[in-house]
Amino acid sequence: MKTTNRFRWILLLLLIPGVGWADRIEGRMNGLGCASKGEMCPTDKDDPHVLMERDFVVQTADGNYFYITNMDWRTKLKFVLQHVRVDGKFSDKLSAIAADEFWVKQEGEYQLEWSLEMAREKQRKARLEQQRQWPQELR
Question: Could you report the per-residue pLDDT of 93-116, keeping only the tens digit for each?
């Protein structure tokens, strides 16, 4: 009986591929304009050229690049030219990933710098602070 139950669980897990598993992309943050030309942005992230970029992407070692659809421009700019890892839900059709977590390589190890949960918490705190500033009769 135990073997039959194990077999059923294994079969069930095989029939539901990817449930609970996140996709992962690793590469360097690069300006979209530079990446589309197959180049890396200037080596100084304070270069005015970098500030003119419309968006930033993760460019992999093979030259492909991927959009991060749910992360703001300023956060991406902060980590331009650094090695990053993005965990989330990947879309082959759009060459994009909706990030759950954004990691930056520092001193040989990846450090969590942004997560969807962190962003939601920041927004929640901002809403609460904004509500505190409303006049008493509007609360």
Answer: 999 999 999 999 999 999 999 999
Please give the Cα distance from 50 to 44 (Å, whole number): 8
Residue type, 104: V
What three-state secondary structure class fits 49?
helix
Angle at 105 between CA 103 and CA 111, to 5 degrees: 50
Among candidates 58, 78, 77, 59, which has minimal Cα distance to 68?
Answer: 58
pTM, two decimal places: 0.76
Cβ proximity of 116 and 110 under 8 Å: no
**Per-residue pLDDT at 113:** 98
Q: Which of 62, 51, 58, 97 is nearest to 81 (CA)?
A: 58
Q: Classify the C-alpha dihedral 117-123-129-132 as positive or negative.
A: negative
Q: 55 near 30, Cβ under 8 Å?
A: no
φ and ψ at residue 75, rounded to 5 degrees:
-65, -45
Contact 71, 102 (CB under 8 A): yes
Q: Supply the DSSP symbol for 51.
A: H
